[in-house]
Amino acid sequence: MPQDKRLVPDEELNRQRGFIEKIKDRAKKTGEQGRPLRAFTDTYGCQQNEADTERLRGMILEMGYTLTKSEDEADLIVINTCAVREHAEMRVLGNVGALSHIKKRNPDLIIAVCGCMVQQESVQEKLKKSYPYVDLVFGTHAVWRFPELLYKKLSGGGRVFDAVNAEERGMIAEGLPIHRDERGRKAWLSIMYGCNNFCSYCIVPYVRGRERSRAFSRIMDEFRGLVNEGYKDITLLGQNVNSYGKDTGEGIDFADLLYRLNEVEGDFLIRFMTSHPKDASPKLFSAIADCCKVAKQLHLPFQSGSSRVLKSMNRGYDKESYIALAELAKKTVPGIVLTSDVIVGFPGETEEDFCETLDLIEKVRYHALFTFLYSKRPGTKAAEMEDVVSKEEKQRRFDRLLKIQNEISKELHEEYVGKTMRVLIDDRGADSVHTLSARTDGGRLVHLNGSEALIGSYADVKIIKSSNWALFGELA
Ligand code: SAH
Ligand code: SF4
Ligand code: F3S
Fold it and tell me: Which of 37, 141, 285, 459 has its Cβ near the most Cβ atoms within 10 Å?
């Protein structure tokens, strides 16, 4: 069978395996001299970046490093960066800046900066000029070439800046090792990469390249593996999962994928993100309703309630059609938990536009809303638009919106009080009263008290209290 042209060729991946072996030999020598080499990773941004870091960690472990939680004792530091808002970029630069002290103490330390931010040439230039202690820089498209790049640095000594290579965009690298945290609890599973939507404010399509879906059989194999390993909460990832399968030629769309994964034997829950409203179909809602292992939860970002602003954002739907869609989701999947993203202060947003946003959230009533102040991203269409509203006014709008949303979340969470529900206990709790934390089927956070031995298992919990951001329960 000829190889899928969208895949990184096998011989390329084998070359990378060769570099992993070479690095492993070096690591072994160092280990024999004293101690094993240690690597530290840090991840900014969304779950896509988390998933990339899991691949990097998989390769790092195969290279013979052990993982450490302390930057100070690391021989290799990898920072995976996010470019979605200016604030995210400033945080990354601040933290990379702080690494210079560690490098002074330990000149042999290798510092790598990768991910969305450095997929931009301007950022690479900045790192080259102003951050001389950063050794290795590579973008999102080069994750699979990390072994080669690291080996180059280890054997040559010079700084390595991987060119932002247009040819590699749109490639899929299958078969990389993955090291997941939280064994047996929650797992991310990438089903597609990139984005074709070019929402006018967004940098993602520029730093993640064009949309490409993984073959169904690859997803199924990875999914089955996760279930066999005991994972209970599996989130399918893509910037717009609703356009899954458009390029595979397999005739399996996202709803079909849900139906197929739902048939896998085992006790687990399937979640997914993100759904773009323009591609969310009645078939998708039916799939959520029909599939007992698909969480009754939908993250459906609306971004603005003003049809005029939505047009300028290039979102491909208007206020009325969005509300109709949310209503259809509620009707098709009774009790569905809706969450969303919204941007406040998009260029040209008037008080009237903003009131449309408030109206939309009062009509749809989300359990939770991720609220962002618009951030100008150089290179995007919106960056060229006139932006006259003051920072102070944007902040006032932001605060007004938050106040209304908090009230809605509070009211919706109150409806859980007195109910007993099945939750997945997924972590230690935040304090001594609530020693455990859990998630409901709809993704609501539950604080409760119980033995740590319960982490990773389902339990019936009676909800006794609620707030605008969480539920509080006791083991039933
Ligand atoms: N693919 C996902 C979103 C990825 S980015 C989707 O389309 O839903 C996550 C969120 O960040 C977006 O939903 C948007 O609300 C926010 N965001 C993206 N670019 C932004 C910008 N320039 N300023 C402020 N928020 C932004
Ligand atoms: Fe960005 Fe829009 Fe793509 Fe989401 S769909 S990643 S907001 S361009
Ligand atoms: Fe950030 Fe890249 Fe995700 S820009 S939000 S880490 S796709």
Answer: 141
